[in-house]
C-alpha cells in the first residue's frame, strides 16, 4: 500500500508543475493579445494617443489574474 502512495506523489507533482506552466503561458498570451487590441484601437479610433492601450492592458491583466486564481483553486495538493 505504501508503494502505491509513493508512486502517485511524483506524478501528481509533475501534473501540478505542468498546470502551473500552462497558467503562466496563458497569462502572457492573454495580456499580449489585449495589448495588441489596445494598439489597434488607438491607431484606428484615438488618433495615435495611448488611452486604449492602457485600458486594454489593465483589462488583460485583470482577466488573466482572474483566470489564474480560478485555475490555482482547482489544483489538488
Précis, in short:
This protein has 77 residues and is mainly α. Helix content is 88%, strand content 0%.
Q: How would you characterize this protein structure?
A:
This protein is mainly alpha-helical and 77 residues long. It contains 2 helices and no strands.
Number of helices: 2
Distance between the termini: 20 Å
Mean pLDDT: 86
Low-confidence stretches: none
Please identify the structural class as seen in this structure: mainly alpha
Q: Please give the largest β-sheet.
A: none
What fraction, in percent, of the residue positions are helical?
over 70%
What is the rounded Rg?
A: 19 Å
User: How many strand segments?
Assistant: 0
The backbone outline, from C-alpha atoms, is rod-shaped
- As a percent range, the share of strand residues is under 5%
Order of helices and strands: HH
What does the oligomeric state look like here? single chain
Topology at a glance:
Blueprint: H1 2-45, H2 51-74
Helix pairs in contact: 1-2
Amino acid at each position: 500500500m505504501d508503494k502505491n502512495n509513493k508512486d502517485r506523489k511524483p506524478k501528481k507533482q509533475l501534473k501540478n508543475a505542468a498546470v502551473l506552466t500552462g497558467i503562466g503561458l496563458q497569462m502572457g498570451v492573454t495580456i499580449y493579445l489585449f495589448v495588441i487590441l489596445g494598439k489597434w484601437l488607438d491607431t484606428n479610433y484615438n488618433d495615435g494617443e495611448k488611452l486604449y492601450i492602457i485600458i486594454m492592458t489593465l483589462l488583460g491583466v485583470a482577466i488573466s489574474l482572474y483566470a489564474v486564481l480560478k485555475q490555482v483553486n482547482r489544483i489538488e495538493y
